[in-house]
Amino acid sequence: MKYVLVTGGVVSGLGKGVTASSVGVLLQACGLRVTSIKIDPYLNTDAGTMSPFEHGEVFVLDDGGEVDLDLGNYERFLDIKLTRDNNITTGKIYQSVIDRERKGDYLGKTVQVVPHITDAIQDWIERAAMIPVDGKEGHADVCVIELGGTIGDIESMPFIEALGQFAYRVGSGNFCLIHVSLVPVLNVVGEQKTKPTQHCVKGLRSLGLMPNILACRSTMELEENVKQKLCQFCHVPAENIITLYDVSNIWHVPLLLRDQKVHMAISKALNLGIVSEPSMLEWSTRAELCDKLNETVRIAMVGKYTGLSDSYLSVLKALLDASVACRKKLQVDWVRSSDLEDETAKEDPEAYKAAWDLLKEVDGVLVPGGFGDRGVQGKILAAKYARENKIPYLGICLGMQIAVIEFGRSVLGMEDANSSEFDPNTKNPCVIFMPEGSKTHMGGTMRLGSRRTYFNVSDCKSAKLYGNKSFIDERHRHRYEVNPDMVETFEDAGLSFTGKDETGQRMEIVELLGHPYFIGVQFHPEFKSRPGKPSPLFLGLIRAACGQSSDGSTLKKGASSMKGNGLSNLSHNFGNGKKAKALEVIYSNENGVIC
Fold first, then answer.
1. CA 464 to chain centre
2. 395 partner at 20 to 30 Å CA-CA among 172, 206, 318, 354?
3. Would you give the DSSP letter of residue 279?
4. Is 335:382 a contact under the CB 8 Å cutoff?
5. What average pLDDT score do residues 256-283 get?
6. pTM for this predicted structure
7. Residues 6+ away with beta carbon under 8 Å from 195
8. What is the pLDDT of residues 39-49, one digit of tens each?
9. DSSP string over 542-582
10. Which residues are part of the catalytic machinery?
11. What is the spatial distance between Cα 116 and Cα 164, in angstroms, rounded to a whole number?
């Protein structure tokens, strides 16, 4: 097994996750099998109890692991399925060591950070690296490890020590370190400054880790004299100092690495024997296509975490995957759900008007998952507007429950229809707490991971989008569900529950009859969307928002989305004032060709 470690210095948020993912893509293009591990130094056992404001979205894996959002980047870029063991946290390590101590496994020894914690970290890395994640038998050739945080953080110290030992343990020909650092450009002097990188590399070396490759984040490509300066002070060969400058979309990052021969530098450090240029036609074509699209589709994201886009990272990526497949430029309009409520109209009429004006201009509405009652009334109003005005709507998890509550209030006349999460005393509990849930412990107590959904209506939109399969497997994260005792009442009124679990008692998919596209799902389809393989439900939303039928076969004139954003003779104006033939890219998913 070969190991590539990606660390970061100077500041957080430099893009270590995208860099690690892009390294994996590059190595895959060279014919190697790749797996990934993310190390998070926080004491939480997992990301499940952390606020999206604190740490971005919680990404859910097939096995139910609630993990850092960077594992979502790995899965999307590499098209793999990771496990909960591919995310290492301080909490997991200490818990495992303490459990062993309680069993007496250390035979009376004094349990210490060195060697017990550091040994546990190394053993975990070796064990997780051997787990097959690409659907093939046997382990991968290369494991890309990302160390979260910034070099010098006190909570990272046990991992730094462990990784220094690990580099010695596996041998120099099996370990390559890529350090991502910042080379800022100060507006006052207008030149690239190397001092921050010099200091962080000095700190890294003092901790026993020597970088093989220096990946420098900057607004522009590194000047040659800057490279020579970094080479001299950081003891890294000039050809191994690369620039990760700002690009128009993240699909360009693997191409940046390829163009700067990063695969050759890694091959030299790990004795991989790579001699040829990797073929990355699909990546370059997709990146270029994304840049050249100019016919816009506008989707309103109605939620409460609109101040931090990472809170809905997988949803945004799934929308992007679908819009590129439909040859559309995605524009996400953020609508804070609380701004749509009557209370805001009294307190901040300008915010209220702006939110409603924005909602009325979009081509489609998406209500993502969430917890807590803040902004729920605004989400209900958004669902009502989409339902009554035939605007394409996709509700995910809470977004599905919101659609059911709104239908109960507006169509069935249940004025107090609600979820028992928001009103435990409602006389019409449309959404209830699941029997197997826990009200005393928050972490890991939800219905998590991949679960099966069976289609009980064969000609529904969702079944057609999934290729008329009898069942699908999607990832879940919820502790409330639609009340099965009220399903018959809703279906009699035209709200069809087209997908259910194996018992037939748990509602998974709901569709509104007679609406161009109004679908709610209890699961999270965004977690399995991939570049070139968009989630069928997101693809259906974008198609409907573009005025197409859900199968993409026809164009509906006069649809709500045809506000100057419709298709134009199936050719695209690429921004140069001339009609140009669209790039001939065929995107396909497991159900066949989709574009």
1. 25
2. 354
3. P
4. yes
5. 92
6. 0.89
7. none
8. 999 999 988 88
9. HHHHTTB-TTSS-B-TT-TT-SS-S--TT-EE-SSSSEEPP
10. 397, 524, 526
11. 15
Q: Which residue has the tokens 């005792």?
A: 485
Q: Coil, helix or strand for 108?
A: coil
pLDDT tens, 272-285?
Answer: 988 788 989 999 99
Distances (CA, A) of 502 to 26, 507, 569, 594: 41, 10, 44, 28
The DSSP element (H or E) to which 519 belongs, if any, is strand 518-521
Grouping H, G, I as helix, E, B as strand and the rest as coil, residue 506 is coil
DSSP string, 197-260: HHHHHHHHHHTT---SEEEEEESSPPPHHHHHHHHHHHT--GGGEEEEE--SSGGGHHHHHHHT
The one-letter amino acid code at 523 reads F
Q: Which residue, chain included where needed, has tokens 């921050």? A: 196
Rg (CA), the chain: 25
- DSSP characters over 383-446: HHHHHHTT--EEEETHHHHHHHHHHHHHTS--TT-EETTT-TT-SSEEEEE-TT--SS--TT-S
Which tokens hold the place of 350?
């300008």
Dihedral of alpha carbons 45, 51, 53, 58, sign:
positive
pLDDT of residue 571: 31
* Residue 558, CA distances (Å) to 189, 281, 381, 572 in order: 55, 38, 24, 20
Is the separation of the CB atoms in 368 and 478 below 8 Å? no
Q: Which DSSP symbol is given to 360? A: T
Whether 80 has a pLDDT exceeding 50, the answer reads: yes
Token representation of residue 517 = 């596209």
Query: In sequence order, what are the beta bridge partners of 7?
Result: 179
Residue 579 has pLDDT above 50, yes or no: no
Each residue of 194-203: b (16+ CB within 10 Å) or e? beebbbbbee
The mean predicted confidence, pLDDT, of the chain is: 88
Q: Rounded CA gap, 403 and 424, in Å?
A: 19
Sequence-separated (6 or more) residues with CB below 8 Å from residue 440: none
The sign of the CA dihedral 286, 288, 290, 295 is: negative
DSSP for 488-499, please give it: HHHHHTTEEEEE
Would you state the torsion angle of the CA atoms of residues 339, 343, 344, 350, taken in this order, to the nearest 10 degrees?
130
